[in-house]
Amino acid sequence: MPTQTMTVHKMQVDGSEVTFTAGETVYEVATRNKKNVPVLCYDPRLEPFGACRLCVVEIEGIRNPVASCTTIAAPDMKVTTSTDRINRHRKTLLEMVASENDAIDVDVLSGYSSQELTLLVDEYGARTGRFAGAQSGDSRKDDENPFILRDYDKCISCYRCVRVCAEQEGDYAISIMNRGFHTQITTEFNGILKESACTFCGQCVQTCPTGALGDRKALRFAETA
User: Fold this and answer.
1) Which of 87, 133, 158, 210 lies most in the core, judged by the most C-beta atoms within 10 Å?
2) pTM for the complete prediction?
């Protein structure tokens, strides 16, 4: 059988010509070419979601910035990943997110991705206290399972935990209830984890970018060390 060849296309990112293949997103092309595009709701294992809006870029011919993680790259597209306008947008979004959380600095042992929000807030100088947002989650520290800490006062509703549980594990143990500031990550019937479909695989902890979900065993070890 003849070997199928993959068609390579060209586009511009920050003035440089780069190549891509059909189906790649602008975010994938940009980051593969060493461009620093911030994200909070993105996990490469998951379907693009476009919720946090930090990854917006400018595309010539399109009036408003677009989410690069959900925008498919096209031939001859001209993309700009960083401008004063975009960086002001990112800083404001991070200031708003920070205003809703009870803590930006969390223990590095909480989980693999737990420092993502902290690092972005510092990178964009967003510890300004300019906004006074209401907290958008209620903690479940009463859940006495020995593995996963659920501190939803740090939750930013990125839904990475919900999606990794469904898309990667197929358990659907984590869900969402309510809207707006009342949005809450929860289990079915808002119960405790051991009474849900949770298998305590830890994937939700490892994808959480804020430490809202934490590794209880690691945190206990740090307290006793």
Assistant:
1) 210
2) 0.90
